[in-house]
């Protein structure tokens, strides 16, 4: 495995741990899926206007988050229904746009399931920088986000602006999703956030321990999964998810065995 892929992997894993905790705590998995599905439309837009895929995906992620907040405020439909409409509309438009722009089936497949070949040195710079900034901002917002997750009423009383913090969390998810797409894939990126954090939740005794544990487990799963995918010439996303699920099952069985004992 080349150095830039290794650094990219570790950068993503470090930010996926704490961010995944909030996805689990705030039950944002469906939002993560919707955000990931919109990414392909971001790639198409990036190709049309001549900017990098990451910028296109981040722009669509912000538009997606703003659209959800606005529509939810109008109370037209339930949040999960709005997410379903936005996600499937964005994914369908993305597939159609990529086809019209001349993208081949292999290229679209790589975006959907991930590919090591897509991780270039230029992309690695974007991913490492984006992950570092996201991690720094997440640490800066951590106390307010924890308070908001524990009790929105208490957070409001303490002067935490709920809408701003929620939007910031959505944007951070968008950055991480955009950074991870070409490695893990659109269809499976949410798993990178949910499974390591859920595994860490089985043994962590504090939010901070869960965040650190999630990062460590995500790093381990990616460091095991990527060489396996490379050696057996498989899509990276499914292999990483399989390793993550295996780690979750091992920790779960250990936890259940401890309880019985």
Core attributes:
single chain; 261 residues; mainly alpha
What does it look like?
The chain has a single domain, classed as ABC transporter involved in vitamin B12 uptake, BtuC (Orthogonal Bundle). The model has no long low-confidence stretch (mean pLDDT 86). It has eleven helices and no strands. Helix content is 84%, strand content 0%. By secondary structure, it is an all-alpha fold.
Summarize the structure.
The protein has one domain: ABC transporter involved in vitamin B12 uptake, BtuC (Orthogonal Bundle). It has 11 helices and no strands. The protein has helices at residues 3-25, 29-49, 53-74, 79-100, 105-113, 121-150, 152-157, 162-184, 189-201, 207-231, 236-260.
């Amino acid at each position: 495995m080349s150095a830039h892929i290794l650094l990219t992997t570790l950068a993503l894993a470090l930010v996926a741990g704490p961010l995944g905790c909030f996805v689990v705590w705030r039950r944002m998995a469906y939002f993560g899926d919707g955000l990931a599905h919109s990414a392909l439309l971001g790639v198409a837009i990036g190709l049309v206007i001549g900017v990098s895929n990451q910028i296109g995906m981040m722009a669509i992620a912000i538009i997606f988050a703003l659209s959800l907040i606005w529509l939810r405020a109008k109370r037209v439909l339930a949040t999960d229904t709005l997410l379903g409409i936005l996600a499937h509309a964005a994914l369908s438009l993305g597939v159609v746009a990529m086809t019209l722009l001349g993208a081949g089936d292999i290229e679209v497949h790589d975006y959907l399931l991930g590919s090591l070949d897509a991780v270039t040195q230029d992309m690695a710079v974007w991913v490492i920088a984006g992950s570092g900034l996201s991690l720094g901002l997440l640490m800066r917002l951590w106390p307010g986000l924890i308070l908001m997750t524990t009790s929105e009423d208490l957070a409001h009383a303490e002067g935490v602006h709920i809408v701003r913090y929620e939007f910031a969390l959505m944007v951070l998810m968008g950055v991480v999703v955009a950074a991870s797409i070409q490695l893990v894939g659109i269809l499976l990126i949410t798993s990178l956030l949910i499974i390591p954090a859920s595994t860490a939740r089985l043994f962590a005794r504090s939010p901070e321990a869960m965040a650190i544990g999630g990062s460590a487990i995500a790093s381990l799963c990616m460091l095991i999964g990527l060489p396996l995918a490379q050696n057996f010439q498989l899509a990276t996303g499914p292999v990483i998810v399989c390793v993550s699920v295996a780690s979750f099952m091992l920790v779960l069985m250990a936890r259940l065995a401890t309880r019985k004992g």
